[in-house]
Amino acid sequence: MIRIIIAGAAGRMGRRLVANIAESEDLALAGATERAGSEFLGLDAGSVASVRPLGVRITENFEELLDGADAVIDFSTGRVIENARLAAAKGLSIVIGTTALTADDRNELRRLGDSGAKIVFASNFSVGVNLLFYLTKLAAQTLGDDFDVEIIEAHHNQKKDAPSGTAVSLAEVVTGVRGWDYDRDVRHGRVGNVGARTRREIGMHAVRGGDIVGDHTVLFAANGERLELTHRASSRDTFAKGALRAVRFLADAKAGLYDMRDVLGLK
Ligand code: NAD
């Protein structure tokens, strides 16, 4: 059994992590935290996650949980780096999904990894999306420059930014293979009499509507054939399951800072 602390257990991701741990056979919930003042403090984390009572009460005191745990998963919007330092000092594995980390935060994670901690950080824990990055690179390398590349992403109608970070990363995979430049060669949408498509551009298109969790398609089109690589996320469980996979990976890994491509053996 791997005993896991979930930081931010009442958040959207925290609840799905608790629920997925409850359903697994090799993982156990060892602790759950929330921010000071949260209405969920003192409640059973399993009940908050709408599974079943798991006998783990949500606390604001992260440090008191460390001695009874093997790993921490942090998708909280709280003290991610401070938590990582405390967990590293006690030898716990650390999985971080919070996306708002600064460059300094990332450097600190690398330093912790270099000094003996086992850490996975990824801005997208979906196994499918990480495989899509890999397949996009393989397709770009194999098909060569004759194929026009267009990227189409779709998200719910509340998403504020466009294109998505994942779509940007997909375009960067292609610009990396072709030796192109993202700012110069990515073309966002087309309107009016823009003329024929040039050879040296990647079209980027953002669709917004309803409750779409996140779709990404990379289209490779040439004369006579086209290849479309599509990933569709339909629930946050895809990220939770990826994070649990990262915890299992760290159980047998050497110290260091890893990402999801390491976890999936895609490097
Ligand atoms: P959310 O707001 O629903 O959840 C965050 C939770 O953290 C809240 O319940 C909040 O009260 C709690 N929190 C804040 N301070 C805390 C503290 N000091 N201690 C403990 N808990 C604290 O947000 P969400 O949708 O679950 O997303 C959380 C983060 O995960 C965001 O940064 C989001 O971008 C990221 N995310 C990453 C991935 C990925 O694949 N890497 C996927 C989805 C979301």
Within CATH, the superfamily of the largest domain carries the name NAD(P)-binding Rossmann-like Domain
Strand order of the largest sheet: 3-2-1-4-5-6-12
How many helical elements?
9
Structural class: alpha/beta
- Which hetero ligands occur in this complex? nicotinamide-adenine-dinucleotide
- The count of domains is 2
Major pleated sheet: 7 strands, parallel
Task: Quote the CATH topology of the largest domain.
Answer: Rossmann fold
The CATH architecture name of the largest domain reads 3-Layer(aba) Sandwich
Number of DSSP-assigned strands = 12
String of helices and strands = EHEHEEHEHEHEHHEEEEHEH
Shape: elongated
The CATH class of the largest domain turns out to be Alpha Beta
Poorly predicted runs: none
Report the average pLDDT across residues: 95
Give the helix/strand layout:
Elements: E1 2-7, H1 12-23, E2 27-33, H2 45-48, E3 58-59, E4 71-74, H3 80-89, E5 93-96, H4 103-114, E6 118-121, H5 127-143, E7 148-155, H6 165-178, H7 182-185, E8 186-188, E9 202-208, E10 214-222, E11 225-233, H8 237-251, E12 256-258, H9 260-263
Parallel strand pairs: 1-2, 1-4, 2-3, 4-5, 5-6, 6-12, 7-9, 8-9
Antiparallel strand pairs: 7-10, 10-11
Helix pairs in contact: 1-8, 3-4, 5-6
The structure holds nicotinamide-adenine-dinucleotide.
The site of nicotinamide-adenine-dinucleotide (NAD) has 25 residues, from helix 1.
Summary keywords:
2 domains, Rossmann fold, 9 helices, 25% strand, binds nicotinamide-adenine-dinucleotide, 7-stranded parallel β-sheet, single chain
